[in-house]
Every structure is written in C-alpha cells, then in structure tokens.
Hints:
Layout: H1 7-23, E1 41-42, E2 45-46, H2 59-71, E3 90-95, H3 101-112, E4 115-117, H4 119-129, H5 132-142, H6 149-160, H7 163-168, E5 170-173, H8 179-187, E6 194-199, H9 202-210, E7 212-214, E8 221-223, H10 232-237, H11 246-265, E9 271-275, H12 280-295
Parallel strand pairs: 3-5, 3-6, 4-5, 6-9
Antiparallel strand pairs: 1-2, 7-8
Helix pairs in contact: 1-2, 3-12, 4-5, 4-6, 5-6, 6-8, 8-11, 9-11
Amino acid sequence: DKQIKNPMMKSVLPVALLLASASAFTTTNPAAAFAPSSTRAIHGRQHPSVVVLRASKNKEKISSRTRWAETRGYGAESSDDNDVARKAPKLIIAGAPASGKGTQCEIIKDKYGVVHLSTGDMLRAAVAAGTEVGKQAKDYMDSGKLVPDDVIIGIVKDRLEESDCVECGWLLDGFPRTQAQAEALADAGVSADCFIFLNVPDDVLVERVVGRRTDPETGKIYHMTFSPPDDEEVLARLEQRSDDTEEKVKVRLEQFHANVDAVKGSYTDIAVEVQGTQKPEVVSETIMKSIETVLA
Length: 296
C-alpha cells in the first residue's frame, strides 16, 4: 500500500488504467499490449520500475483497480471530473392538495439523490432529537398552539445545515407556505436553485381528492375513477379520509390560494410553473429539464 513516488509511474498508470477499461469491451486478449518487450525479470524478481498490467474483461476488477489508484491520488491530474463536479441541488416544490406533488417528489429524490423534507417530518425529528428549537416547538405543540414561523424557520435551517443536505442537496416539499415564511427563510440565509410549482385547476383537484380511497391494511391509495382496485375484497375494505370531502377540500384550496401567489412572487427569478394535468411522466420530464438547466 505504499504510494509510488516515481513521477513516471504517476503519468503512466492513469493511461494504463484507461486502456485496461477499454479492453474490457473487446473480444480479443489484450494482455500483450500491457507487457512490453522491454519487460524482463531481474535476478528472478521483477524490476520495481516496471509495471505489468494484464487487462481483464471483468468490470469489477477494473473498477476496483481504478478505485485503488484514485484513493492514492493517481490519475487525478489527468481527470477533469473534479473540476466539473455537479453542485448539490437545492429545490422547493409547491402545489395544491392532490396536485401530484408527492409523485414528483419521489421521482426527483430518486433521480438526484436529494434529501426530501417536509415541515411535519422535520418538526417531529427535531422534537425527538431534543434540539433547542425542537424543545420550543414541543412546548407549543403540547399546549395545542400553532408553532410560530420563527421556530419553524429555525428547525428548517438547522436541518438544511446537516451533512446529508449539504452533500446531497435538498427538496423542500410544500414549504414555505406563506410570504412571511419565504421572507424569513431568505433572512436566515437559505436560498434555492429552483422553485417548482405544479398548476392544476380546482375542479380537477376536487375530483382527484374526492375519489381517493385508502386500503387500511396496506396503506395503498387508490382512486375510484382513475385507479380502482381489481380485487373485490380490497374494494370492499377501502376507506375515505374524513377530510377528503368536497366541502373540506374547497376550504383547503381557499387557504392554499390565499398564500401561493405571494410565495411564488418571492421566487420569480427561479420559478418554473408546470401544468400538473399532464401525465406524471410528462410533468416529470418538464421538471427534470428545468432542474438540469439551473444545475448546468
């Protein structure tokens, strides 16, 4: 495991690794290419200045060999990857109830490896961890009061500063909800690369919500119009959430519309509006193109 200090070795090894990788995809035996005629055994041992690499068709061996070299600093000078490393995405997604936000969050998370965050999850985690802002939140929650924005912003800021968010990037799901939260987030030094808004007409949203049903045994969500279960037994046990009625969803939509325009106004320069009535894969394609643009 000693590092090779010979400068010629540092320049030769990356090239040899590149050729070895390429040979894995050929049908000929490339061993001779890496055993030059000048290679000779001296006193029964190979001379230390000579490196003989035998190409392998086994990709795992090539990968292991490459990792070995990289951990020792070889080949770094010949690679541009370190200079063009992609920054960790910082994203916000907003949309009304049943806009398809949950589906798109999963796709974004799988595609970019970002940390998916909702305020509810962050609040519960902060309370469970016993952080200072978590204790403050718990006091409000235990007394039945709404957690004020300054406490929520503190919890969000602390979470975004954790190593996984710094290294992998983050996706804020449905936050900020108000202009005051957006301004407080900016004052706390939190900025995003892209603000994604899923636009869906209210009549479509009402239809989506009212038709939702949940299987109490599996937790799977169905829709009586768009994706009903095939199994009659499953169909018989489906349940509707108490707040998935037309009257209650309209109240939620009124609350959403009362704040969303102001929130969008806080992110005008990075906002992307996507028509959420399209098929999920089409919506996703539009979102991905927008993210790729800001990360380029």
